[in-house]
Amino acid sequence: MTMPDEFDPDDNFDQAFGHESDVDEEAAQEAVVWQLLLLINPGDEDAALQQFAAYREAAADAGEDADPVWLLRDAIDWKAGFFVAEDDPQALVESVDELAARWNLHIDWGIDDEENDLDQVEVPTLINTAYDRLREHHYTLWTWETGSEHHAGWITQQRDDEALRLVAGALGFHVRTGAG
Known about the structure:
With 180 residues, the chain is of the alpha+beta class. The protein has one domain. 49% of the residues lie in helices and 12% in strands. It contains 8 helices and 4 strands, in the order H-H-H-H-E-H-H-H-E-E-H-E. The chain has helices spanning 12-16, 25-40, 45-62, 68-76, 89-100, 114-117, 123-135, 161-171; strands at 81-85, 139-144, 150-157, 175-177. Strands 1-3-2-4 form a 4-stranded antiparallel sheet, with helices on both faces. It starts with 11 loop residues before the first helix and ends with a strand.
């Protein structure tokens, strides 16, 4: 193998996936989707497989121009992710409680009377509370920018924080932790 005249060993990724490469972009995207599903379904490959099948079916139906972010949102909703309106704290609590229950975790939301006092708390405050409570058990609550008046996200194991940033970014998710 001959090296290009301007070979940069730190640029191996670009050399492998440059404009001249014969990478199947759909297969590469599916591989990254699979990695994301494994991260947001820690320890539950069966759930990740079911969500992957739903994603692939939706992608086939949507065609080439489909946005993987929204296809994934639909495939994981209430199974491995949440998507709630900015003015619906009850939906956030229910959804995140459901997600945390997969690991037998209960979130103390810090609200005395959840039914009556919940409407007085803003969704971002609840996201921050969930983040803090989940970190106590080595999990991270993530949110991603929806471009709308909704909040969306998922939960991963804390040790996968850097991997989640990389994989989500590769798919076009703009993520941040629920810490604020």
